[in-house]
Write a structure and sequence with these properties.
- The protein is mostly helical.
């Protein structure tokens, strides 16, 4: 009985306390800033954003530009039209746009020999020497360069002749051998034609071909080695054709070899010092040399020759500051076009030697 009274009292007490208990306040959620401060942020990537990123990701072009030029295709430069004619493709691989520096080198060597005459025979010899240096050995060089760059081109420019399959691998290899043997054969022919006891032109052609091979082919691949690669390219495009022209009509002397080697070294200036420093070195070397010659002429009593050279140097310096030194690549053509002094080729080949001319004219 007592127990039942106790239980009843407990229930009554609980009910009364519940009746007089304050109602519980409903807690509001914490502020948004507090919630974020306690929570570690994680980036949220929506499917739409992911798709957008995928679509904007740059990809290698799968085909040549639609507005390709037939003329560019024949010259072997960028912007070439896709071609199915095998002979046009073969010509494209030889990159005719790179031939002129070598043709010019042969002419310089022939003129420097002092023995060139405007006779049918001497002109014919010069033409054969140009064919050896330009279409044959330069064509060999360019074709073999494309051959060893085919894996890179397959990623960056898959529409080029070799990676696109426009020309087969066997056809490319055949072209390499035909151009090489033709160049060496013309070199041997020129030695016989010139009456040389020592086949110097043949050995120059052979040395140039070997240099071209190790420039492009592994394991040496000199094109990847800064100074050495640029000097090798400069020697191939400047020194060797000059030596061939000199040896064809005269004697290849050590002083000529040294001077043309120095001339070839100029091609490495932009790589060794950078474009900004190289442009000042080139301009300074050209101007100081010409002013020194003018001073020498004045000291020997040749006033009018000194004044003539000085008169040609002054507009050259003005054009250097107006165009060349501002941006050597952008204003090179404007800077070169008005000039007719003897420094034209010197300044051009110093900053834009065969190697630089090569990289401006074509993609490699």
């Amino acid at each position: 009985m007592a127990t039942s009274h106790l239980l009843a009292a407990a229930v009554t007490s609980s009910s009364s306390s519940a009746a007089f208990r304050r109602p519980l306040r409903r807690l509001s959620p914490p502020p948004l800033s507090l919630t974020l401060s306690r929570r570690r942020p994680f980036p949220v990537v929506r499917a739409a954003d992911a798709d957008a990123k995928e679509t904007t990701k740059p990809k290698a072009p799968e085909k040549a530009p639609a507005a390709g030029s037939s003329f560019n295709q024949l010259l072997g430069i960028k912007g070439a039209k896709e071609e199915s004619n095998i002979w046009k493709i073969r010509l494209q691989l030889t990159k005719p746009v790179t031939w002129p520096p070598l043709v010019w080198g042969v002419l310089c060597g022939a003129a420097a020999s002092g023995n060139f005459q405007w006779t049918v025979e001497d002109v014919a010899k010069s033409i054969v020497c140009m064919l050896m240096s330009g279409p044959c050995l330069t064509g060999y060089t360019q074709t073999i360069n494309d051959w060893y760059d085919r894996d890179i081109d397959a990623i960056n420019e898959p529409y080029r002749p070799i990676p696109s399959g426009a020309i087969s691998e066997n056809e490319v290899i055949t072209q390499i051998w035909v151009l090489l043997l033709a160049g060496l054969g013309l070199g041997a022919l020129l030695d016989v034609w010139a009456g040389h006891d020592y086949p110097i032109i043949f050995y120059l052609a052979l040395g140039g071909s070997l240099l071209s091979y190790i420039y492009s082919a592994p394991p040496l691949k000199l094109k990847q080695n800064g100074w050495i690669g640029n000097f090798a390219l400069g020697a191939s495009y400047i020194g060797l054709p000059w030596w061939a022209g000199q040896a064809l009509f005269g004697t290849l002397t050590p002083d000529i070899v040294v001077l043309t080697c120095l001339y070839s070294i100029a091609g490495s200036l932009p790589v060794a010092f950078g474009m900004d420093t190289a442009k000042w070195i080139c301009v300074g070397a050209i101007d100081i040399t010409q002013l020194s010659v003018a001073g020498y002429l004045l000291s020997t009593g040749k006033l009018y020759y000194a004044l003539a050279l000085l008169g040609l140097t002054i507009p050259q310096v003005i054009l250097q500051f107006q165009y060349f030194l501002k941006d050597p690549v952008k204003y090179d053509v404007k800077y070169q076009t008005p000039r007719s002094t003897a420094a034209h080729k010197s300044s051009y080949m110093s900053l834009h030697p065969a190697g630089k001319f090569h990289s401006l004219a074509i993609e490699h």
